[in-house]
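A student in our group prepared the protein record below, which I am reviewing. Here is the record exactly as it was handed to me.
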Amino acid sequence: MIHTELRSAVVAGASGYIGQHLVGTLRDSGVEVRTIGRGASSDATWTHGLVDVLHGADLLVNLAGRSVSCRYGKRNADAIFSSRTQTTAALGHAIAASTRPPKLWVNASTGTIYRDSRDRPMDEVTGELGTGFSVAVARAWEHELFTSPAPVRKVALRMSIVLGPGGGALNPFINLARLGFGGPMGDGGQRFSWAHVDDVVAAITYAYDHPELGGPVNVAAPEVLTNAETMRHVRTILGRSRGLPLPTWTLEAGARIIRTEAELVLKSRWVESRALTESGFCFTYPKLAAALHQIADHTPHGLLPVALG
């Protein structure tokens, strides 16, 4: 349950992992939720009814975007890019045309926008943006949000890696540990910024109730561990005392086999939630061990499903 003045919300990308958790939490709290998507079950699609579905809503949350767990060939790269920028642009024009637009527009973004960092955390004020395809996508995504004609408060939610039961980014780590490969990935020194899905949902509703929040807002738990430390916690939760390490070359080869990119685990992400914490937000799961215990309690035995690119 959440405690907020929020009464109605529109969620785009509601069928995804975070979207399902957000919609469920909002509805359990008595919030009226309308959705935007491609299927017939949505209240509006990207080509029909956008202005109407936004009319009178308190909050818009856009989580739409093709999964980045794939090979970055031209077709996939174009889909990743367009699925973020085009949907964001469409929402901006719809809000601008609305006579009763939402008070707040929260648009998904990513902590991957920052450079590979092992020397210090990246916050919204002093963080340095990186280079490469993933960063270019994130910058274009946020550019569409902040340059849109929508006359409302806007938040770019720079999420770190989202963990939670029933999916999220942890399933591949659990599978590796259960297969005996739960050791460090690469040299194991890369930082692992993360957030429990419950805290991501809480951050969204918190932003609605705190009008001082605007612009980029990082969502990352206070405890940021190395990859080696993270995998040790995963093994401990699963009752595995040891795990074989995965050198960089094995990760790159394996990524090609399952059609994804090794960058997803090799890049050092050290993200700090300065805007949220300075405004008074408290994480329910500030430490990884507690988050993993909660996830393990709701995770079945055996190998878990992993979306392949």
The mean pLDDT is 95.
